[in-house]
Every structure is written in structure tokens, then in C-alpha cells.
Write a structure and sequence with these properties.
Radius of gyration: 20 Å
Number of strands: 4
Largest sheet: 2 strands, antiparallel
Strand content: 5-15%
Oligomer: single chain
Strand order of the largest sheet: 1-2
Distance between the termini: 30 Å
Structural class: alpha+beta
Order of helices and strands: HHEEHEEHHH
Length: 150
């Protein structure tokens, strides 16, 4: 954490210290950091809730790698039915293959509909499986607003 933020020679400094990410002064003392955050729970690592914010008690949590990967600054978010989530979260929630939704991520930034009308996987140009066809039909029937990026 300290190296990422304060050592220009660190391999990822440009994404942390070089991008203005800092560590709160109290956490420059490891004992204070440990007093505020506790010991690292098994299977979790330190994550910043706001990935553009500093390392401090209010902005940090212990998180799984899945949680951390969904909290990256380079994730694109999609709004559907008034809810904004990453494509990976939508794919999991809708029980759809991520690759079926992936082209939304690469589409123009203006609002658009998810292109599921042709019965073809929009990522691989292959016929959809029966399960995918059912999921696509359900998605078309239940969506109340077009997909858009915030």
C-alpha cells in the first residue's frame, strides 16, 4: 500500500500514487492501521470502496477478489430498470452468459437496447442455446428501460 502510493519506482505507482491515491497519515504507522482495520481475514484483501479515493478507515474494507474486481475504475457500468451494475453482475443476476451481454460494454455511450432480437449470440454469431433463448426472451419481456451507461 505504501509502496504503491509513495514509491515512484514501484511497478504500479502510476495507477496509485501517480494518480493521486494517498494513505491517511494515521496509517503510515502499521500499528494504527491494524488497530483500525484489524487482522486480515482469510481469503480477503484490502479494498478501497471508492477506487479513486484514499486509503483510510472510511474508504477501506476487507473484500474478496470478486468484490475487488467489480470495484475497479476501468469497469463499465450498465443501467437497467433504474439499477446500475457491472456487466458481470448483470450476467450473474440474470443467469445469462457474460459473453451474451459483453457487446453492450463496447457499444456507443448513448442509450441503446440490448440486441437480443435475432436469436443469435451477439458476441459469437452462433445460435443461442435453448436456455439462452429463454433468458433472452425473459429479459426482453421484463425490461422496462433501455440499457444505458451512466
Amino acid at each position: 500500500m505504501m509502496g504503491r502510493c509513495y514509491s515512484p519506482g514501484h511497478t504500479v505507482y502510476k495507477w496509485y500514487g501517480g494518480a493521486g491515491i494517498t494513505v491517511c497519515p494515521d496509517w503510515h504507522d502499521f500499528m494504527q492501521f491494524q488497530a483500525e482495520m484489524g487482522n486480515r481475514p482469510p481469503g480477503l484483501t484490502l479494498d478501497r470502496k471508492d477506487p479513486k479515493g484514499p486509503y483510510c478507515k472510511e474508504n477501506c474494507r476487507w473484500a474478496t477478489m470478486v468484490e475487488q474486481n467489480r470495484n475497479r475504475t476501468n469497469n463499465r457500468h450498465v443501467t437497467f430498470g433504474g439499477e446500475t451494475k457491472t456487466l458481470a453482475e448483470w450476467a450473474e443476476l440474470l443467469e445469462m452468459p457474460y459473453k451474451t451481454l459483453h457487446p453492450v460494454q463496447d457499444a456507443a455511450s448513448t442509450p441503446h437496447s440490448l440486441p437480443l432480437d435475432a436469436g443469435t449470440s451477439v458476441h459469437r454469431a452462433r445460435p443461442l442455446s435453448r436456455a439462452e433463448q429463454g433468458e433472452a426472451q425473459w429479459l426482453k419481456q421484463t425490461r422496462s428501460t433501455p440499457w444505458s451507461r451512466p
